[in-house]
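In the design runs reported in the main text, the only information available to the sequence generator was the tokenized backbone. The following block is the verbatim input for one such run; it is reproduced so that readers can re-run the procedure and compare outputs position by position.
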């Protein structure tokens, strides 16, 4: 079974709580997020989300991952699958690491595994990685510009 890992990160001048608030404001994603176009659902371990991603230059993909971790102010992680387990699985992780007063490192990564990962490696490295980087920069801009928080 093929495996592949993508990892991106960016430093953001804001508190972990501020970054977390923007990440969990799913209703605002269509307004600022160039990669994850929408998320619906409750970020709670065991819950299922409805997610639409669209890397720039790629087509939109919808899936219903299961939340593995929802650690407030720190980590949101989910597992998405294409068709059946082992075909194309992706464990997506959004991690906020405090670096000091008012500064964090935001990390976005995904571990892919399954039969279709090998043939998809080129588009993962090109399109999906670009989507991660685009989202990271947009998140940084939104958080640092002080976009309104929603409860």
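Verbatim output:
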């Amino acid at each position: 079974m093929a495996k592949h890992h993508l990892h991106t990160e960016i430093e953001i001048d804001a508190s972990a709580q501020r970054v977390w608030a923007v990440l969990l404001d799913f209703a605002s994603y269509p307004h600022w997020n160039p990669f994850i176009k929408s998320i619906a659902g409750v970020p709670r371990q065991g819950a299922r989300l409805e997610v639409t991603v669209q890397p720039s230059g790629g087509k939109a993909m919808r899936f219903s991952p299961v939340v593995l971790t929802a650690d407030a102010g720190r980590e949101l992680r989910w597992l998405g699958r294409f068709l059946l387990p082992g075909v194309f699985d992706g464990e997506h992780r959004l991690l906020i690491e405090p670096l000091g007063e008012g500064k964090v490192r935001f990390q976005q990564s995904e571990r892919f595994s399954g039969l279709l990962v090998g043939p998809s490696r080129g588009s993962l490295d090109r399109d999906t990685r670009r989507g991660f980087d685009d989202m990271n920069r947009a998140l940084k801009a939104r958080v640092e510009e002080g976009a309104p928080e929603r409860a």
